[in-house]
Amino acid sequence: MMRTFIQFKDGVAFAYVNTPNETEGIEVFTDNPDQFLKKTFDGTNWADAELIRFAEVDEEGNIIEVRRTYFSSDVAGRPVITPEVKTNWKWVDGAWVEPAPVVEETPAPE
């Protein structure tokens, strides 16, 4: 008889294994093990894992690429993008900095 085990990376379900033997992971009894992927398990309940947005930045702290993952180890020290951060912000000294607004002055009428 085949058994299904959910495997985890960084506390998030990322794969399942069908095997007649015991293996690493949490055994589930279902015909649809895909339903557990991208979920966390606290020993009793399954919940959707948080999608993490993070940035690749250049030497000046400009965002050059935005990436998404469910696994904290994929972030690997790169800056996490919180909801208020926009793509024109900079990563400076370990914090996001909003750029100063550009104010255009209109010349006074002559």
Describe this entry's structure for a reader.
- The structure is a single chain.
- The protein has 110 residues and is mostly beta strands.
- It is built from one helix and nine strands.
- It has one helix spanning 72-75; strands at 3-9, 12-19, 26-28, 39-41, 46-48, 52-57, 63-69, 90-92, 95-97.
- The strands form four sheets. Strands 2-1-3 form a three-stranded antiparallel sheet, with no helix packed on it. It has a two-stranded antiparallel sheet with strand order 4-5.
- β8 and β9 (95-97) form a beta hairpin.
- It is elongated and about 90 Å long.
- The protein starts with a strand and ends in a 13-residue tail after the last strand.
- The model has no long low-confidence stretch (mean pLDDT 93).
Unreliable segments of 5+ consecutive residues: none
User: How large, in whole angstroms, is the Cα Rg?
Assistant: 22 Å
Structural class based on helices, strands and sheet pairing:
mainly beta
Helices, by number, come to: 1
Fraction of residues in H or I helices: under 10%
Along the chain, the helix and strand elements come as EEEEEEEHEE
Total DSSP E strands: 9
Query: Main beta sheet, described?
Result: 3 strands, antiparallel
Estimate the global geometry from the Cα principal axes.
elongated
Strand content: 35-45%
